[in-house]
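Propose amino acids for all 189 sites.
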């Protein structure tokens, strides 16, 4: 690979996962608005990942830029990051005792041009829980910067009954899809 690999994200979780699997990179946060394509979680995650990768790539044309976006979907409704504590509570209520999907889009760009993209889906089953558990989650502050109002790698682990698919996808960076994308564009990580 020539040039730098850049992660178009400010997420400490994504940085930890890339470092954990030994991929050298630097970070530069994207500055673009996220979109919501109603009823299309895969398309939403890909559109936002693409926008993030292209945004940073336009500023850093020498780098291969990876953009990611994660959304939670429940019966056609897409949950991004909650805008308020009440929205976080509503999301957590909706997910209680149910199975939802987590979609993460990953896109690679260089020189302002899309090189490729992938999407990963994981199904997560939450145990049934009540208002006390919801209050504990919201009071922690954790839900406010996470799609679906939970982080499975921290307090949200208390809610999960089962995970079907890539655990790291639920955290925000699907390892297999990322490695597959990098290899498809000629990067051996």
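Proposal:
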């Amino acid at each position: 690979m020539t040039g730098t690999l850049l992660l178009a994200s400010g997420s400490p979780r994504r940085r930890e996962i890339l470092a954990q699997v030994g991929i050298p990179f630097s970070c530069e946060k994207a500055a673009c608005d996220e979109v919501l394509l109603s009823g299309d979680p895969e398309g939403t995650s890909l559109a936002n990942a693409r926008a993030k990768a292209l945004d940073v790539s336009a500023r850093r044309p020498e780098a291969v830029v990876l953009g990611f976006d994660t959304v939670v979907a429940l019966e056609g409704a897409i949950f991004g990051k909650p805008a308020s504590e009440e929205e976080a509570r509503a999301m957590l209520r909706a997910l209680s005792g149910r199975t939802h999907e987590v979609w993460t889009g990953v896109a690679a760009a260089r020189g302002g041009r899309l090189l490729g993209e992938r999407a990963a889906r994981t199904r997560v089953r939450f145990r049934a829980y009540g208002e006390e558990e919801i209050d504990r989650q919201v009071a922690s502050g954790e839900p406010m910067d996470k799609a679906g109002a939970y982080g499975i790698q921290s307090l949200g682990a208390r809610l999960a009954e089962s995970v079907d698919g890539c655990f790291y996808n639920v955290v925000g960076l699907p390892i297999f899809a990322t490695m597959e994308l990098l290899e498809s564009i000629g990067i051996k990580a």
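The radius of gyration is 16 Å. DSSP finds six helices and seven strands in the chain.
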